[in-house]
Amino acid sequence: KNQVEQSPQSLIILEGKNCTLQCNYTVSPFSNLRWYKQDTGRGPVSLTIMTFSENTKSNGRYTATLDADTKQSSLHITASQLSDSASYICVVRVQTGANNLFFGTGTRLTVIP
Amino acid sequence: NAGVTQTPKFRVLKTGQSMTLLCAQDMNHEYMYWYRQDPGMGLRLIHYSVGEGTTAKGEVPDGYNVSRLKKQNFLLGLESAAPSQTSVYFCASSEKRGSSYNEQFFGPGTRLTVL
C-alpha cells in the first residue's frame, strides 16, 4: 500500500534552535519527493523537490535529504525563526497512475521566543 | 500575478443545501485540482482537470461535481451538503500533469462547515 508517514506529528522548539523532520514512504515506483510549508490559514508552498539521484538539497535555512534505498527523507531547519512556525508536508510522486501524488499528514512546528 | 485564488474563504451550510466553490488561476496552467484537507489526514484529491472542458475523478469524488468551462477557472459543486463534507478545500494548478517536476501551486483554501 502506498503510504507517506511523517514524524513527529508536532514539535515545539525555541527560536534559534535547529530541528529535523522525518518522512518515510512506501510508494512505488518513486518519481520525486517535495517538501511543502503550509502556514496557518494558507495553502501549501513548495520548499524543495528531491529526485532519485539527489541526496541533499538546500534552500536557505532548509536542507532536505533523501535516501532512496531506505525510502526516507528529512527536512532540517537551521537557526529557526518565529516565521518557521507552520505545518511541513511531505509529498511523494509515483511514476504512473492518475492519482500519482501521495501526501503525508504533516508535522506541525511551533517556534517560540 | 494573483496566483491561485479561491472564493469564498469561509462558508457555513445546512445539511442538504448546495453551493459552488470557485477557483481561479492567472498562470495559464493546464491542470487544476481540488483537494480536501481534514485533521489528521493528508490532502486528498477530489477531482482534477487536465484542460478546458475536461474533468476526472480523484480519490474521494463522491458528493462533488466539477466543471472547467474556462481554462482559468475550476468550479467545485456540492449538490446536497452533508456534515461529512465539513473540511478545508484547496484548489491547485500546475503547468502539466505529465511532467514529474511541475509544482502544484495552491490557493488559500475555503473553510466549509456543514451543520
Short description:
The complex is a heterodimer of chains A (113) and B (115). Chain A is mostly beta strands and 113 residues long. Chain A contains no helices and eleven strands.
Supply the key terms:
heterodimer; A: 113 residues; mainly beta; 5-stranded antiparallel sheet; 11 strands; 0% helix; globular; B: mainly beta; 7-stranded mixed sheet; 4-stranded antiparallel sheet; 50% strand
SSE arrangement:
The complex is a heterodimer of chains A (113) and B (115).
Chain A: E1 4-7, E2 10-14, E3 19-25, E4 30-38, E5 45-51, E6 56-59, E7 62-67, E8 72-77, E9 86-94, E10 101-103, E11 107-112
Parallel strand pairs in A: 2-11
Antiparallel strand pairs in A: 1-3, 3-8, 4-5, 4-9, 6-7, 7-8, 9-10, 9-11
Chain B: E1 4-7, E2 10-13, E3 19-25, E4 31-37, E5 44-51, E6 54-57, E7 65-67, E8 73-78, E9 87-94, E10 105-106, E11 110-114
Parallel strand pairs in B: 2-11
Antiparallel strand pairs in B: 1-3, 3-8, 4-5, 4-9, 5-6, 7-8, 9-10, 9-11
Explain what this protein looks like in three dimensions.
The complex is a heterodimer of chains A (113) and B (115). By secondary structure, chain A is mostly beta strands. In chain A, 0% of the residues lie in helices and 58% in strands. Chain A contains no helices and eleven strands. In chain A, strands 2, 4, 5, 9, 10 and 11 form a six-stranded mixed β-sheet that branches. In chain A, strand 9 (86-94) and strand 10 form a beta hairpin. Chain A is globular and about 45 Å long. The relative contact order of chain A is 0.34. Chain B is mainly β and 115 residues long. Chain B is 0% helix and 50% strand. Chain B has no helices and eleven strands. Chain B has strands spanning 4-7, 10-13, 19-25, 31-37, 44-51, 54-57, 65-67, 73-78, 87-94, 105-106, 110-114. In chain B, the strands form two sheets. In chain B, strands 2, 4, 5, 6, 9, 10 and 11 form a seven-stranded mixed β-sheet that branches. In chain B, strands 1-3-8-7 form a four-stranded antiparallel β-sheet, with no helix packed on it. Chain B starts with a strand and ends with a strand. In chain B, 35% of the residues are buried. The model of chain B has no long low-confidence stretch (mean pLDDT 93). Classes of the chains: A mainly beta (113), B mainly beta (115). The A-B interface holds A 4, 31-32, 34, 41-46, 49, 51, 89, 93, 95, 98-99, 101-106 and B 4, 40-45, 56, 58-59, 90, 92, 100-101, 103-104, 106-109.
